Each structure stands twice: as C-alpha cells, then as structure tokens.
C-alpha cells in the first residue's frame, strides 16, 4: 500500500530555493516513506498540532498524513533553525 505525495504551494516555493543536492535528498526520502506502507515509522509527531516532522539532515519537512486517503501532504520545508517558528499557532 503506497501513499500518494501532494506538495503545497508553500513547500514548492521552498523546494525551488534549495540547492539541487538537498532538494534531491528530500524528494528521495519522501518517496521512500510513501512506498514503505507505514510512513508513521519515519516521522515525529509535533506537540500541540496534528502534524508531523520528517528529518532530512539539517532540514525538516512538516507533513500531514491522511491515513484514510493514503496521502502525505507536504506543508512546509525549511532549515531546522527556523521551521518550527513558522508553524507556531
């Protein structure tokens, strides 16, 4: 059972700002967790929000996993020093 990956417009803009090597590492990791059948093994649940964080080197990908629809929604991509400040509610 493979999950589909949907990338938000904000995440697409962040992808374009990254260097090619980092963007490729992130994309490869997303494909890996989508194909695994259980993406919950690779992510950390964020405190106080119903979202998850995926670690790829010094970068974090904020995602929402829709288990019923088999969908991984990529919301934000950023360096660990400032990504968590951007998602404060």
Instruction: Quickly count the domains.
Output: 1
- Number of E-state strands: 5
Biggest pleated-sheet summary: 5 strands, mixed
- The CATH superfamily appears as RelE-like
Secondary structure category: alpha+beta
Instruction: Report the CATH topology name.
Output: YaeB-like fold
Order of helices and strands: EHHEEEEH
Number of helices: 3
Span of the ends, CA to CA? 33 Å
User: What is the CATH domain class?
Assistant: Alpha Beta
Percentage of residues assigned to helices? 25-40%
The best one-word shape is globular
Mean pLDDT, nearest integer? 92
Radius of gyration: 12 Å
**Poorly predicted tracts of residues:** none
User: How much strand?
Assistant: 25-35%
For the largest beta sheet, what order do the strands appear in spatially? 1-5-4-3-2
Summarize the structure.
It is built from three helices and five strands. It has helices at residues 9-17, 20-36, 83-86, and strands at residues 4-7, 44-45, 52-56, 59-66, 71-79. The protein has a five-stranded mixed β-sheet with strand order 1-5-4-3-2.
Give an account of the 3D structure.
It is built from three helices and five strands. The protein has 89 residues and is an alpha+beta fold. The protein has one domain: RelE-like (YaeB-like fold, 2-Layer Sandwich), CATH 3.30.2310.20. A five-stranded mixed beta sheet has the order 1-5-4-3-2. The chain is globular, with a radius of gyration of 12 Å. 19% of the residues are buried. The model has no long low-confidence stretch (mean pLDDT 92).
């Amino acid at each position: 059972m493979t999950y589909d990956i949907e990338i938000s417009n904000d995440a697409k803009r962040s992808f374009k700002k990254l260097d090619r090597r980092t963007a490729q590492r992130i994309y490869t990791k997303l494909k890996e967790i989508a194909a695994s059948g259980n993406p919950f093994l690779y992510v950390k649940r964020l405190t106080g929000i119903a979202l998850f964080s995926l670690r790829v080197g010094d970068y974090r990908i904020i995602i929402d996993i829709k288990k019923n629809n088999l969908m991984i929604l990529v919301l934000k991509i950023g360096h660990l020093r400032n990504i968590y400040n951007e998602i404060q509610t």
